[in-house]
Task: inverse folding
């Protein structure tokens, strides 16, 4: 299918960024080099500036095209924004145009591009907030579909992923409709805040006639403070989060736990379900709780992240030798979330959560929390089963899920001519 | 809302009672003769007037003064520094919990009257009177304070909010106090609210029995002493729990009163165990005085949240926040056991006769 014209033209020939950078490992992370930069040096950067760019990861690039969309397997970046949008496209052809425009612009922004030349009396094609050269900054853009996109508006009813449904509140939720659901979800991640903000601004610009912002959450990852490069980052309760994630380098695990199963429509192969939950953490309340009580609620030692009774973060909690909860309480979060039994093994999910901070509430309390993001093969079997087990856990007093949704992230794009969701319209 | 049920709960006297440590019951049957000593001779010594339940033991414990002193030597443990207060015998909570249970049961019975008034007002088509009765009924429920969390489904039926329901405010499962609040303040026809009010009445009738029989452990009770106001901070003053009436400050006031009742029953135990009670008393008094001042400034009514000026709201936030910081010391002062040591994974694995594989994927 021919791509629609975009106001942001294809990558300028003078782009200093070559597309032949070496792919590093399974993450698809690549890096432009100083040599590449000086090949065209659109930045006019001196050598000191180039060193800074490399040090700050601004040259890192995550491949856009591939069997799976970027932003799923890669470790959580430093910054993220998720934006849910309502689709207002008049018909299916308009929806296609919107998805194509998003894809083209996302590919440019994630791979690095330059501002196109243009007539001076035209509004600039790019906001310019990153300057004339847009460095890749390990940016990822992941697009996912909500259940409502498959209603009767666009003829997609028969193509809905079989496990996709609107998010119903769990017992301890207080979901705000204005912060929940959406036809489309865009997850943007990058190593710098300004890159994420710029990417969202540019993406919504190219598809204004088709998609309208419904809610957004800006989030960040805690810095890597060790003690090892493998150590999980901390959430805003001060505990390490994501310790028991499945191994993303294991194709078997990913095929069993993350990528769409054989029950899904053919177009969905290589896709995955994305769960987003905006979970307000009542941090002031939490800070008034004794350390032992905090650790008992989680089941881990706060400082090291080790399961209680262990010494290292990645110690097996060995629930099997603690059946009465003498070491880790029976209702501790980690025991309920992942009991580590053969029966619950295929419930495991890939968590890619972030912290968020967005001001204060009506009572002057910090509006902080967890932007819970997880990928899984079947939310019924995985996320919802886990969440139902967590119903009533002691931690519920300290958190309030206020928004989010279930989405399906379709497979990635084959090449530069493909676009996200193309399989839906074949 | 003018006529509120008046309990013998005048704020200054409560605050003053807390402040001076006299803490003589303002509610009959709450153990008025067991007031604690106002003197304190250190964190571990028995109070001069405290009734020693175990001869020669530190009040509330089974320890001799020497044993208590040994426990209080700030010996580090595997999990940190040990509390300076010796653990309490759980039995010392029997009387406070019984006192509280009697108080809460009376409150639950007293709730019947405003609920009946609510139904009558609805049937007479008097929205203003219905709102007033609703406020009185809500006060009564919040005055239960330390128990509603333990009431489970009955609490949800009475005080449930719509956030956890798929249909939100339109969900058929949205009933109880807040459904009535929503319908009253959003102009819904009064006859349609009667059904919900009668449902509320049936549930309120179940409350006294539930309160007499619900299990309340020492840990529950010690925790509720600070969580009533934590709930007020999270749900009330933030305008989450009662958004249509805007009565978050009035609800906070109720929570403060309920907290005062709980603390009064606990004061014989808390006296002499650190400064948490003194701190709490001071900040409770300040918040009570602030709310009374706001009430006077707003024509004798506790203002709704949207009637507060920015400065007034700031003052409430600050006062409540300071009280909460003080209250956070209460549970730690009421421990019935030292934080137990945590067995190692390896020792449990050995005991279970299984190899300790501590390398998780």
Result:
């Amino acid at each position: 299918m021919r791509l629609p014209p975009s106001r942001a033209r294809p990558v300028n020939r003078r782009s200093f960024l070559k597309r032949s950078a070496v792919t590093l490992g399974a993450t698809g992370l690549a890096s432009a080099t100083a040599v590449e930069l000086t090949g065209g040096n659109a930045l006019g950067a001196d050598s000191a500036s180039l060193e800074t760019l490399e040090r700050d990861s601004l040259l890192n690039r995550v491949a856009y095209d591939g069997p799976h969309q970027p932003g799923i397997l890669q470790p959580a970046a430093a910054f993220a924004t998720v934006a849910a949008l309502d689709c207002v496209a008049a018909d299916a052809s308009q929806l296609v145009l919107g998805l194509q425009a998003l894809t083209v612009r996302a590919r440019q922004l994630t791979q690095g591009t330059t501002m196109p030349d243009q007539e001076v009396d035209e509004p600039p094609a790019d906001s310019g907030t990153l300057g004339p050269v847009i460095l890749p900054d390990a940016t990822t853009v992941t697009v996912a579909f909500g259940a409502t996109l498959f209603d009767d508006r666009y003829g997609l009813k028969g193509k809905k992923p079989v496990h996709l449904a609107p998010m119903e509140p769990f017992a301890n939720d207080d979901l705000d409709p204005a912060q929940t659901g959406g036809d489309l979800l865009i997850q943007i991640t990058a190593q710098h805040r300004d890159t994420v903000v710029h990417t969202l601004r540019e993406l919504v610009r190219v598809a204004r006639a088709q998609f309208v912002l419904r809610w957004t959450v800006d989030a960040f990852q805690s810095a890597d403070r060790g003690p090892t490069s493998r150590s999980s980052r901390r959430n805003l309760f001060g505990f390490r989060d994501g310790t028991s994630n499945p191994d993303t380098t294991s194709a078997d695990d990913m095929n069993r736990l993350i990528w769409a199963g054989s029950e899904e429509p053919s177009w969905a192969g290589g896709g995955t379900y994305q769960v987003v939950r905006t979970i307000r953490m009542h941090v002031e309340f939490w800070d008034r709780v004794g350390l032992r009580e905090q650790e008992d609620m989680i089941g881990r030692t706060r400082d090291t992240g080790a399961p209680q009774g262990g010494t290292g973060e990645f110690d097996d909690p060995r629930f099997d030798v603690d059946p009465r909860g003498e070491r880790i309480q029976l209702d501790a979060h980690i025991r309920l979330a992942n009991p580590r039994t053969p029966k619950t093994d295929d419930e495991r999910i890939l968590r890619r959560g972030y912290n968020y901070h967005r001001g204060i509430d009506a009572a002057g309390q910090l509006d902080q929390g967890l932007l819970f993001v997880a990928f899984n093969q079947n939310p019924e079997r995985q996320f919802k089963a886990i969440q139902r087990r967590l119903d009533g856990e002691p931690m519920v007093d300290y958190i309030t899920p206020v928004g989010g949704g279930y989405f399906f992230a379709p497979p990635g794009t084959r090449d530069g001519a493909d676009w996200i969701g193309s399989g839906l319209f074949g | 809302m003018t006529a509120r049920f008046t309990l013998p709960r005048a704020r200054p006297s409560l605050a003053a009672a807390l402040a001076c440590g006299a803490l003589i019951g303002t509610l009959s049957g709450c153990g008025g003769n067991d007031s604690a000593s106002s003197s304190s001779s250190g964190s571990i010594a028995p109070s001069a007037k405290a009734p020693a339940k175990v001869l020669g033991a530190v009040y509330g414990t089974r320890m001799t003064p020497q044993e208590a002193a040994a426990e209080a030597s700030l010996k580090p443990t595997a999990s940190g520094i040990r509390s300076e207060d010796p653990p309490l015998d759980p039995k010392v909570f029997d009387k406070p919990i019984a006192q509280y249970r009697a108080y809460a049961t009376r409150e639950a019975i007293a709730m019947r009257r405003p609920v009946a008034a609510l139904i009558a007002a609805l049937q007479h088509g008097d929205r203003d009177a219905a709102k007033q009765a609703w406020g009185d009924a809500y006060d009564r429920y919040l005055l239960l304070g330390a128990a509603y969390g333990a009431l489970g489904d009955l609490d949800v039926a009475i005080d449930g909010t719509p956030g956890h329901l798929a249909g939100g405010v339109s969900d058929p499962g949205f009933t109880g106090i807040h459904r009535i609040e929503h319908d009253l303040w959003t102009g819904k026809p009064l006859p349609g609210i009667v059904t919900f009010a009668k449902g509320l009445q049936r549930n309120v009738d179940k409350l006294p029995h539930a309160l007499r029989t619900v299990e309340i452990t020492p840990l529950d009770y010690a925790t509720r002493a600070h969580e009533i106001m934590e709930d007020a901070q999270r749900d009330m003053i933030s305008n989450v729990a009662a958004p249509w009436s805007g009565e978050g400050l009035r609800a906070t006031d109720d929570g403060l009163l309920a907290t005062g009742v709980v603390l009064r029953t606990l004061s014989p135990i808390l006296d002499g165990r650190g400064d948490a009670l003194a701190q709490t008393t001071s900040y409770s008094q300040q918040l009570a005085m602030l709310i009374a001042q706001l009430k006077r400034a707003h024509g004798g009514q506790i203002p709704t949240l949207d009637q507060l000026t920015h400065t007034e709201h700031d003052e409430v936030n600050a006062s409540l926040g300071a009280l909460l910081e003080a209250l956070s010391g209460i549970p730690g002062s009421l421990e019935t056991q030292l934080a137990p040591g945590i067995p190692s994974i390896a020792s449990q694995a050995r005991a279970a006769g299984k190899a300790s594989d501590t390398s998780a994927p």
